[in-house]
Amino acid sequence: MVELESPQLNAVFHALGDVTRRRMLRQLSSSERTVSELAEPFDISLAAASKHIKALEAAGLIRREVRGRTHMCRLNPGPMASAHQWLSTYERFWTSRLDLLEQRLREDDARKQSQTSEGDKE
Amino acid sequence: MVELESPQLNAVFHALGDVTRRRMLRQLSSSERTVSELAEPFDISLAAASKHIKALEAAGLIRREVRGRTHMCRLNPGPMASAHQWLSTYERFWTSRLDLLEQRLREDDARKQSQTSEGDKE
DNA sequence: TTCTAATTCAACCATGTGGTTGAATATAGA
DNA sequence: TCTATATTCAACCACATGGTTGAATTAGAA
Q: How far is residue A36 from each of residues A32, A46, A56, A72, A73, measured CA to CA in Å?
């Protein structure tokens, strides 16, 4: 059910590649917040904060519920799970020394059967 | 030991926010490759590929070993582990319904003690 | 209705990004 | 030594990004 297509991942990783936005997510992990509440800790204009929030929303990382004139934002964890899952593919590379040995063997293997049939998708 | 400071995370997430670079990492997960080997599947110039590789290197996601005139690249998993770990902080938000209930309670809690002492760092 | 608060929009700016091409560098091989 | 290969560098371009300011929009509150 978790989507791993590129456009989504692009947006998610891009959104996460900014400290301000990561801090906003951190804020939302304790409770939902309005736009002004999210903007408050930062020394930037409300308009700038609004743009950051739109980036998070575009990546699907947050959801917004308009209540009168205030916009209430809350975390939407799905895309984070996708990113997490994408990274998990590489988990064996950092987990154990044993896996490292295994990897070496697979490398030799791959090296033997020259460059026929590149199964790499993303 | 895993570093979670912002500049590193910025570079890592930024590097991951591009399909070409993610595909390059995918290639490197089966075996180490030279610059030209990494560039081959893409319809871009070698110079462009070289830039992508530099971005991955800057993020610490790959290591390069110069062997004569060829540059051999291999995966460096550490920073991926950092990103993975960063995301893990939010794991409870997507794992179980029970955690979702717990989160609601924490939200109410946070809401009660107004906005005093924002402990949010990133 | 009128004032004020919450948020976005639009225009603008400096800088970054991903791509190009052509030249430069350095090494392997004849 | 001469030539071909592997890679980077430099200059350039179009467009995205993150920021600004000031005006517009919308909805509570008086």
A: 12, 7, 15, 10, 10
